[in-house]
Amino acid sequence: MMRRNIFMPAFVMVTLMMAVNPALAHFGTITPSDDIVTQDDDKTLNIQVKFIHPMESHYMEMVKPNRFGVFHDGKKIDLLATLQPAKGKSPDQTESFTFWTTSYKIKRPGDYTFFVEPAPYWEPAEDVFIVHYTKVCVNALGLEEGWDSPVGLETEIIPYTRPYGLWTGNLFTGQVLLKGKPVPFAEVEIEYLNDSPGNPGVVVPPSDPFVTQVVKADVNGVFSYAMPRAGWWGFAALSEADWKMKNDGREKGVEIGAVYWVHTRDMK
Ligand SMILES: [Cu+2]
Hints:
Elements: H1 10-19, E1 27-32, E2 36-37, E3 44-53, E4 58-59, E5 67-72, E6 75-78, E7 84-89, E8 96-105, E9 110-117, E10 121-123, E11 128-140, E12 155-159, E13 166-167, E14 171-178, E15 181-182, E16 187-192, E17 213-216, E18 222-226, E19 231-240, E20 245-247, E21 250-265
Parallel strand pairs: 2-11, 11-21, 13-21
Antiparallel strand pairs: 1-3, 3-4, 3-8, 5-6, 5-9, 7-8, 9-11, 10-11, 12-14, 14-15, 14-18, 16-17, 16-19, 19-21, 20-21
Copper (II) ion binds near residues 26 and 53.
């Protein structure tokens, strides 16, 4: 279920609200245990891959992704075989769900962009399949190189802001690409990862528009957003794929998302 702010008769609204979890935007996530690995740190990252509604701590069941890997030093390394299923629970313990996890040992300096292409997720409430091409960048051992390179996914966000070492309040700027070309006036949804260790407490949105922030890109597909809190922030730009998939013998559309995650810290 995606958006409730569409006009509909009150009885439909009430039925929907009872039938589904309070849920706005979907986001693929990749969260590493650290976004900056220094000489003194543990070099082994723990990485979690999920499909969630980040602000509302609502989780979708996730089957094994089609692709998972890391882009480093201009090369893609396939890590799909390293993914292990794991069971998670929502903070209120009411939902259990499957997500995917792996560990990755950093050996050389430079930027490591982890990426995932999930298996298409059928969303009956929207009558579409959803595929979120999701990325996150980890900086390692003092060399800041590679974060601004495209990985070459069907759709992806290219950071214009270096995506690590960000303070709370920093502006994140990125560009939305679809098949390698900018998406003019792309709509970008932004959510805070509410259920994350180290967060300064849980955010309770006062009303629906606070759950998902929305910004539009300019003619070159470039957007910006200032992040008001410490923690993980997700950026998702959605497009309709030029390919279809079958559900119960019928052709259905596919929503492809370019998703990017960055972490902010408070200045103390
Ligand atoms: Cu959902």
